[in-house]
Specification:
Blueprint: E1 8-15, E2 25-34, E3 37-44, H1 53-59, H2 63-67, H3 72-83, E4 87-90, H4 93-106, E5 115-118, H5 119-126, H6 135-142, H7 153-170, H8 173-181
Parallel strand pairs: 1-4, 4-5
Antiparallel strand pairs: 1-2, 2-3
Length: about 180
């Protein structure tokens, strides 16, 4: 991947569950980096159903907060503008990709074209000695601290952005590029 040739979007979704075909996005957070400059965006999304208690506990969100949030169809154009033509970077990128596809399909739209790159896979390549590669473990290994509430979309997207910058600064360029090459999904 060429440096700064393609915009990079660090993306995180919070969802009502783990199955894209049946669950819904309830929060979107992203950091779009173009020519080295980050732009941050976040929004709550009304999932059209109550959240499971476990999701309320993890995120700290309430059904009342989401009841007044826009539906996905109302934020789809903004999200599409941010990710179209970019390299989307996420921890467990297949999850974000599948939810993106499902939500766009529900409103009768095609998901905007983007390449997806997984920081979890990059971590596996760079740090095979770690016992697991959850965002918490990987960030802790890198000495990074979350700025905000874990399991909230924008703080998690920012953490992926910080992790990327940490790797760029500390991992030899060829090793980082090899890890990236093997981590597209």
């Amino acid at each position: 991947m060429k440096r700064h040739a393609t915009p990079i979007v660090f993306l995180d979704f919070e969802t009502t569950g783990g199955v894209a075909a049946q669950d819904r996005i309830l929060e979107i957070g992203l950091v779009r980096v173009e020519q080295g400059k980050p732009v941050f965006w976040e929004t709550l999304v009304n999932p059209g159903r109550p959240m499971p208690e476990i999701v309320k506990t993890l995120t700290g969100l309430t059904d009342a907060a989401l009841a007044t949030a826009p539906e996905f169809a109302e934020v789809a154009d903004t999200l599409a503008d941010f990710v179209r033509g970019a390299t989307v970077v996420a921890h467990n990128a297949p999850f974000e990709r599948e939810f993106m596809k499902a939500e766009f399909a529900r409103i009768g739209r095609v998901v905007p074209h983007a390449d997806y790159l997984c920081t979890r896979r990059i971590s596996c390549a760079l740090n095979p000695e770690l016992p697991k590669h959850s965002m918490d473990v990987v960030a802790d290994d890198a000495g990074l601290r979350l700025s905000g509430h874990r399991h909230r979309a924008l703080p998690d997207a920012r953490l992926a952005y910080d992790l990327w910058n940490h790797w760029r600064a500390t991992v030899p360029r060829l090793a980082f590029e090899a890890a990236i090459r093997d981590s597209f999904v």
